[in-house]
């Protein structure tokens, strides 16, 4: 036995080393992502491009080289040049100067419409989610009926009733017809958390509905609806452009990307491509940036929920 123990000790000394349980921690190697993969995961490009467009629209007065509302009749349908950087339209207006002023109006309409959609959708969804079964069923059926009607048809009806359009009227018409989907999402979230202990405790202490909605309900689903809220900006901007293209949007003297595109039919006849391509490119790039940021927020929200 002694010889066997001696041989085991010799083997251990030569081939094995006795260490503690925390002698060496295994740290997995993190794969280095390529530059294009990192840009794909985070919307850095979209944020930078959108920030540049917003700053240019805000400081439009410092970027213009002509009066955006001026009619240069001697330069009708002029191609891009050193005098008119992006050319002129069929009315002789400088497209370069109009782009920044028009972007300001289009973005403001998108933000105002988003505020209307968010206010109505969140309030309606909270009321429906907190109500009893009968009231909730009635409110949801009403929202589903409204959602089944084509949005453009309802907006055209409201626009025809309102008369001459401006930014406030257009924003209200777009916002009051676009909250149905948001209300359904909010209602489903409220139904899940309305019987939570902190909500029941707040009710027992006499809290009213407004207090419950602002303090307990909205903070718990604000991350879930963020994608819908941000996406509503791009949807509202595209709807304003559609209305202007149909001749039912803002008047011609109010410059927006939509009102600039309303001259597209004339541009096709006169083969002046810059009148269509340039405002359309700015509109599409802005919408893509906003949508990309919204998708990123939805992905991050899903990750947070999965971790919980």
Automatic annotation (TrEMBL):
PROSITE patterns: ABC_TM1 (PS50928). Belongs to the binding-protein-dependent transport system permease family. OppBC subfamily. It comes from the Bacteria. Residues 103-294 form the ABC transmembrane type-1 domain. One of its GO terms (biological process) is protein transport. CDD domains: TM_PBP2. This is ABC transporter permease. Keywords: Membrane, Peptide transport, Protein transport, Transmembrane, Transmembrane helix, Transport. InterPro entries: BP-dependent_transpt_permease (IPR050366), MetI-like (IPR000515). It is a multi-pass membrane protein. GO terms for cellular component: plasma membrane. The chain crosses the membrane at residues 44-63, 105-127, 139-161, 207-233, 273-297. It is found in: Cell membrane.
């Amino acid at each position: 036995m002694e010889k066997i123990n001696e041989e085991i000790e010799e083997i251990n000394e030569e081939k094995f080393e006795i260490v503690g349980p925390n002698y060496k921690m295994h740290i997995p190697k993190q794969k280095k992502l390529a530059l294009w993969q990192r840009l794909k995961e985070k919307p850095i490009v979209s944020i930078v491009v959108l920030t540049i467009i917003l700053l240019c629209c805000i400081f439009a007065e410092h970027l213009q080289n002509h009066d955006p509302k001026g009619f240069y009749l001697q330069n009708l349908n002029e191609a891009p040049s050193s005098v008119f950087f992006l050319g002129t339209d069929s009315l002789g207006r400088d497209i370069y100067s109009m782009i920044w002023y028009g972007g300001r109006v289009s973005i403001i309409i998108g933000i105002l419409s988003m505020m209307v959609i968010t206010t109505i959708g969140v309030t309606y969804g909270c009321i429906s989610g907190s109500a009893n079964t009968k009231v909730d069923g009635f409110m949801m059926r009403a929202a589903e009926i409204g959602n089944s009607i084509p949005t453009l048809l309802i907006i055209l009806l409201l626009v025809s009733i309102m008369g001459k359009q401006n930014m406030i009227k257009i924003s209200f018409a777009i916002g009051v017809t676009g909250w149905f989907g948001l209300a359904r999402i909010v209602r489903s979230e409220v139904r899940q958390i309305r019987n939570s202990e902190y909500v029941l405790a707040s009710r027992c202490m006499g809290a009213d509905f407004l207090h419950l909605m602002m303090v307990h309900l909205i903070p718990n689903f604000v991350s879930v609806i963020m994608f819908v809220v941000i996406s509503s900006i791009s949807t509202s901007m595209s709807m304003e452009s559609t209305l202007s293209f149909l001749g039912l949007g803002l008047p011609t003297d109010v410059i927006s990307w939509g009102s600039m595109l309303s001259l597209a039919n004339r541009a096709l006849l006169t083969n002046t491509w810059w009148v269509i391509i340039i405002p359309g490119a700015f509109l599409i790039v802005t919408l893509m940036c906003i949508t990309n940021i919204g998708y990123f927020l939805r992905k991050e929200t899903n990750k947070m929920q999965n971790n919980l």
